[in-house]
Specification:
187 residues, alpha+beta, 2 domains, two-stranded antiparallel ribbon, 9 helices
């Protein structure tokens, strides 16, 4: 079955909204919203899930998705990630638990509602262009600075957003995160 990734995200986001779980889309889908679209094999989102919400999240998704409550609880406890896999399409959503550090908290507080092509009736919270750039640069650096996809996503956002980017914000956090030289190269 062919499925549009945004249809699976729509399902997941509606459940998160129903359960009052704050979240934001990041990764390649966010870079496609703010930059040049590209195909992706999965979706990434950050969520602030409390332990008491885990069972309800699993129950709400388990008919249409594979989701393991133990994995959800472990991710919450370790501030790591778990997967939601759509059964009919095998499309995967990687859910990262919000980290407790100044940058992650700031990034999450800046998320903005966006509509996404293919699902106009749902508003998705998406990381800002600046934060997608910083996160992509971090992933690029952590991956040995070899991922063409990460670098292309950064270049695409810079090209599309141009002067709308908050360069002061970018430079501040790039310096804090040890990414200043990569940001300069990208800009």
């Amino acid at each position: 079955m062919t499925v549009n990734p945004t249809e699976v995200l729509d399902l997941v986001v509606k459940v998160l909204n129903t359960l009052d779980i704050p979240h934001m889309i990041c990764g390649s889908l966010a870079s496609s919203v703010h930059g040049l679209p590209r195909a992706t094999m999965d979706a990434d989102l950050v969520a602030e899930i409390k332990p008491k919400q885990a069972a309800a999240l699993v129950q709400a998704l388990e008919k249409e998705c594979y989701i393991d409550e133990d994995s959800v609880m472990e991710a919450i406890s370790n501030r790591s990630s778990f997967n939601i896999i759509h059964l009919a399409s095998s499309f995967k959503v990687d859910v990262f638990i919000l980290r407790d550090n100044p940058y992650s908290i700031n990034e999450f507080s800046r998320r903005t509602p966006q509509t996404v092509a293919g699902v106009p009736e749902t508003s998705f919270f998406v990381a800002t262009p600046e934060d997608v750039i910083l996160t992509k640069l971090r992933w690029y650096h952590q991956g040995g600075e070899t991922s063409e996809n990460q670098w292309s996503d950064v270049a695409g956002i810079i090209k599309v957003q141009g002067e709308r980017l908050d360069r002061k914000y970018l430079k501040h956090w790039a310096s804090e995160l040890g990414l200043a030289s990569l940001l300069e190269k990208a800009l």
